[in-house]
Amino acid sequence: MSQSLDAVREDRGTTERSVETFDIRDYLRLDLFPHFLCPGCGHGIALRALLWAVHELGIDKDGLAIVSGIGCSGRTGAYIDANTYHVTHGRPLAFATGLALARPDLKVIVITGDGDCLAIGGNHLIHACRRNLDITCMMLNNEVYGMTGGQASPTTSNTRYTTTTPDGSIEPVFDACALAAAAGAGLVGREVTLQTPSLKNLLKEAIDYPGFGFVEVISDCTEIFGRKNDLGESPEMILSQKAGMRPETYGRVVDEPFRPTALRSGVLARNERPEYGATYRRHAAAVRAKAEARKQP
After folding, report:
1. Helix (H, G, I), strand (E, B) or coil at 59
2. Which of 34, 55, 106, 281 has the fewest C-beta atoms under 10 angstroms from its C-beta?
3. 234 vs 248: CA distance, rounded Å
4. Smallest Cα–Cα separation from 109: which of 155, 184, 53?
5. What is the pLDDT of residue 16?
């Protein structure tokens, strides 16, 4: 990469902080509470992990920009006490691209969902990965459109019931991490909400990476998805996430895993490529220099 991680930290004026000093209330708009999330929703755990990572990286709230789209995932960004943007459905990565190019001094993080990111926003994800601009994308995957009525999403597992698949889904599941890696994202990873410290560390690595970082968070929707598919309440769902992803180490503590197929977690791919923002600024400077040179007598 064109810059080391230490150089990137120095540019942003960030320093590592310890967990002992982390108080999530310092990063929340407490006047907006109580939050709207359903009891047991995994998105709140993911939000805590994200803010924990921001704290440990020493990112100042005035230097942090959160961009979110439509859906339960998108609403979580409103609770963060920073520069926050709630944009149209499927477009947070498009808005974040313009923001990151215009304000490279900001650390831009996108919070999106499986429907928002992979369905209507799939094209934006591909090209955000391709450009490798310094943006972190946290995609919360609960397999369903939770806010808009419980419709099937691109990640709804086979045989699962939703309002648009009353007889069970028959479509193949979209592997978002494989797509992001193939499209050229700088860093790609996945974790479950149950492994909160591991999720925090993965998000730290993605945020600190000088390029496009994509993190899929396996979350749970208890009310819209869990009840319809008889997956139990939140404790059963988050335990089965881990059992489904790591059956050989966890032991099958549930009869039916949340995920029918095991998924790898942690950092899944690295693509060491130039960061697009720095390349763009160098190119723009060269164009301006040529234009100035032509003006000289």
Report:
1. coil
2. 34
3. 22
4. 53
5. 62
Q: Which tens digits make up the pLDDT trace of 274-294?
A: 999 999 999 999 999 999 999
> What stretch of H or E contains 217?
strand 213-218
Residue 66, beta-bridge partner list: 84, 109
Can you say whether the dihedral through the CA atoms of 101, 272, 176, 107 is positive or negative?
A: negative
Instruction: Kindly report, residue by residue over 75-100, the tens digit of the pLDDT.
Output: 899 999 999 999 999 999 999 999 99
Distance CA 76, CA 47 (A): 7
Q: Pick one of 3.40.50.720, 3.40.640.10, 3.40.50.970, 1.10.3210.10 as the CATH number of 5-295.
A: 3.40.50.970
Supply the DSSP symbol for 223. Answer: I
- Contact 241/256 with Cβ under 8 angstroms? no
Residue with tokens 């992803």: 245
For residue 19, count other CB atoms closer than 10 A to its CB. 10
Contact between 116 and 91 under an 8 Å Cβ cutoff? The reply is no
DSSP string covering 238-277: HHHHHHHH-HHHH---SSS-SSSS----EEEEE-----HH
Q: pTM of the full predicted structure? A: 0.88
